[in-house]
Amino acid sequence: MNLQMATRETVHTDHPDRDDRLARARATLGAAERSAARWGGRIDRTALRTVGEGEHQDPSDDGLGTRLSVPGPLSELFPRGSLRAGSSVAIEGAASTSVLLSLAVAAAGEDSWCALAGMPDLGLRSALDAGLDPCRLAHAPTHGEQRPQVLSALADGVGVLVLGPDLDLAPALWRSLLGRARTADTLVLAATPPGRADITLRSTTRSWAGLGAGSGRLRTRRLAVSATGRGIAGNREVEVLLPQVGGMIASSSSARDASSEVRLLQPVRKAG
């Protein structure tokens, strides 16, 4: 009997301590969150979320880290339709820049910084058309002896790091960047990197649209994108349409609608 009473007393006295520790942890996290927000950072609060009675844990939260959004037309390519912060994605094949930017826009959202490296020909207009926020965008030069230091600083300090096709990375530097990105929860998107990534996307042009009966101009192209890598069983593939302003990618159903809308102007008969 005495042992049971002692156990009950211990349980009842532990709950206030646990609640008090949780309240202090939340207050500390709130202060850190406000500080990080000034630099465009983001802190995952799910670890301090309690599940009340009659409430079930979100099945999409597996406790493996923050999940980042992906473009809707590409969601079928990724496990759970999202990307894990701190992971890496390699893009190979046609229209790699468009795919890179589309993934970056979706993953950065409204509160994360995005850095571009190895894309010297990408102008601000193109970045804006893709949907990137110029107030949270860094376009970093990567020439010279300080390139490893610049890339390492970006991997430590931004939410999404985009490495373009013009960036000639050494395998050792690529592995170092991936290690830093995992520690800092930075998503790395790279065109044809020199080493393995968590997920690899390969894109192939299927067709073009826009030309009429011997005149017109190319307006859109249908692209097949496949995915392989960690958490993906077999080989997944979707069809998308490029380009689409404000997102760069449209689904295949939109592609059929858009291609049917491309028409040449009919000649107009002059009055009289």
Write structural notes for this entry.
- The structure is a single chain.
- With 272 residues, this protein is of the alpha/beta class.
- Helix content is 33%, strand content 23%.
- It contains six helices and eleven strands.
- A nine-stranded mixed beta sheet has the order 5-4-6-7-3-8-9-10-11, sandwiched between helices. The chain has a two-stranded antiparallel ribbon with strand order 1-2.
- β9 (216-229) and β10 (236-242) form a beta hairpin.
- Residues 1-14, 37-61 and 254-272 have low confidence and may be disordered.
Show the helix and strand layout.
Elements: H1 2-37, E1 67-68, E2 83-84, E3 88-93, H2 96-108, E4 114-117, H3 124-130, E5 137-140, H4 147-157, E6 160-163, H5 171-184, E7 187-191, E8 199-211, E9 216-229, E10 236-242, E11 250-251, H6 252-261
Parallel strand pairs: 3-7, 3-8, 4-5, 4-6, 6-7
Antiparallel strand pairs: 1-2, 8-9, 9-10, 10-11
Helix pairs in contact: 4-5
